[in-house]
Structure formats: C-alpha cells, structure tokens
Design a protein that fits this description.
The protein is 44% helix and 14% strand. By secondary structure, it is of the alpha/beta class. The two termini are 27 Å apart.
Length: 277
Amino acid sequence: MSPDDSAHAKTANLVGCTVEDKDPLGSAADRGAQAVQIQLGDPQSWSAPTVAFPGGAGALKQAAEEAGVRIYVHAPYVINVASANNRLRIPSRKLLQQTLDLAAEVGARGVVVHGGHTTKADDPAVGFDNWRKAAEAINLSCPVFIENTAGGDHAIARRLESIARLWEALEGHDIGFCLDTCHAFAGGEPLDTVVDKVMAITGRIDLVHANDSQGGLNSGRDRHANFGEGLIAPDDLAAAVLGAAAVGADFICETPGDAAAQGADIAWIRTRLAEGK
C-alpha cells in the first residue's frame, strides 16, 4: 500500500457486505457496496483456498480495481492457531498462511480470522502464547485482522480482558483488529462504549463487521440480524459506527437476506456516517 493509498484508507470509510466469491463485483453493484468480503473456498474445510472468479486471482484483482471495490477476505472458520492441540494448531497456521498468500494475489486489504480458543483443561496462557508464535511464524503477505467472537468461556477474543492479554502477547507484531458489533454485544460489551475500550487496548480498528444481534447483551449468541430487527439499540449501534469511522475503519455488513435487505443495511450505515459529519 502506497503512502497516498494509506492516507485515503484513513479518510474514506467504505461500506459493503459479505458476498459469494463467484461474482463478488456483480453482487456489490446489486447492493450498492463499495467493499466486499469474500471467502476463498469452503470456510468449513481444511482444503487449500481457491478463487472462484473467472480468470483467477489476477483477474479478480484487476476487475476490483477497475470497479473501485475494496476486497476483504474472511479466513476459514476451522482455523484455531490458539489451540494447544498440535494436530489443530499446526494445520491452522498452514491454512492461514495459504489464505494470506492468495488474498494478497486478489489485492485484498486484509484477512479476517477468528481469535480461536483453548479448552477447559488448558492453561489460558497457552492460547495467547500460541498466537505470539503464530505471529512470529507467518509471513504477512496480506494484513491480518483478528475478530472478536460472541461466545465461549475459553475464547481468546471474546472478553476485553482476553483481548488485552492477546495484544500483550502480540506486542511488536503488526496485527490488526476487526470489531464485530453483534459479537461484541452478544459477548457482553455495550456498543456505545466499545470502540473507545477496544482502541485503548489495541490502538486500532481496521475493519468493522456491522451487524445487529438476534441475541441479547452477553447472551453469547452469534446470530446476526438486519439493522432495526435485532436487540441492539439503534443509537448505540450508530455510536459504534461513528466511533470506528473516526479511526479509519471500513464497514462490512454480514447481515442476512437478499440484495435489497443488505443494500438497506449499507444505506443505514451511510446515513449514520453522513449524519455524524
């Protein structure tokens, strides 16, 4: 990323949504999206990532640049680099690296990955140290953004105190943060204050997964809802959006429904951003 491009990224908050990887740019146009989040292959599989776009990674990168659409990639859900189990942790690192490398080829701005978890039998410190080892081992061919999660007593990135321990372990490594509003709310954090609290810990919010929540505060339920149809107070959600926009984040809606439903959520965010200026 050039210095000029980096400066632009800090001043222009683009808004988009998660789309299928076969025709992400067509889906972006249908929804009025300036950014898209895709997955490179089956998110529940250990198979090497792939690009479904006709012509492959290079063609997708060129087409996205021509369309003016930013691409983000979500890493497979099976990845758990925090695990104390070698048979899970080592393949997780390998798959994360493969995803980073292919994401770089498609011109992605970043790869979102879940923080992972340990088990009841594990010393929690093992999970944080395993993330440190992963950060030392992987080649950041594309930026990595760790996403907060909604549930799990042994999740690495659910509670703010755990995120703080994780960032202590990652000190000196250029690892980013993705704030999921549904996950934060369901994980126990009120949205009107969450941005300031996260910034105090990580110093950065690189991307926001902007979602309403079907579950209540601290419910632990990872169930996204369209804006106005969930349990997050609209003013609190707007506060999180404006706070994250002020620190340069883009927004990806991971909300359910068709192009019209997701397009309405994108428009909701843009309206809040305009009102906040």
